What we know:
Largest sheet: 7 strands, mixed
Strand order of the largest sheet: 3-2-1-4-5-6-7
Number of strands: 9
Strand content: 25-35%
Oligomer: single chain
Radius of gyration: 16 Å
Bound molecules: 5-O-phosphono-beta-D-ribofuranosylamine
Shape: globular
Amino acid sequence: xxxxxxxxxxxGSNLQALIDAEKNGDFTGGKLSLVIASKPEVYALKRAEDAxxxxxxxxxxxxSSVEEYSEVLLEILKENEIDFVVLAGFMTIFTDVVTxxxxxxxxxxxxxxxxxxxxxxxYGMHVHEAALKRGVKLTGATVHFVNEECDGGPIxxxxxxxxxxxxxxxxxxxxxxxxxxxILLPKAVSLYCQGKxxxxxxxxxxxx
Length: 208
Ligand code: GRF
C-alpha cells in the first residue's frame, strides 16, 4: 500500500476530491496518510482532520532559508514513510532536494493547459486572469510530475474547459475546478497507485 502525502495551502477542495475518491474505494494500492499545510488555520486542515488524516503545519517563515525549509520538509516526508506526494494548491517553493529524492513521485495540479499560462508568475487566480486577458476560448487543468523546472515536469493528464462570455476569473476558476481539477487529480492518483504511469525521457505514458 503506497502512503500518500497531500501538500496544501488553502481551501483544500482538491484535497476533498481525493478524500471522497478514497472513500469511494478509487485508490487501489494507495492510502491518504498525511496532509502538510504551509499555513496554519487553512480550511484544508479541517478537511483532513474530519477525514482522520494526520496533519503537519510546516511554515516557510519559521526557517531562514528555502534550503532549510526543504530539508525539513523532506525529513517530515521520510519520517512518515511517504511514497507518493500530491501538491494540491501548495503555494510554497521547495528546492530540488525534495524533487530529486522523490523523482517522478510528486504530482501537481495546475489550473491551465500546460504549456499555456504556466511557469513562475502563473499561480492561483493569476492563471485565470491571464487566460481571460488573452481571450482563449478553451482553458482547463493539467496534472503533471514535479521536477526542478516550474510546471515543466512530464504531463500525466489534461482536460479542456470552455471559457464563456462574461466569465470573471472567479467564475472560470470554479468551472475549471469542477469540470477538470476535481476529476483529474483523483484519477491521476489512482493511476499512479496502480502502477499505470511510466515516464520515459520526460514523457509520461498512461496505461489505458
Ligand atoms: C487550485 O486551483 C489548484 O489548481 C491551484 O490552487 C488551487 C487550490 O485550490 N494550484 P484548493 O485549495 O484545492 O481548493
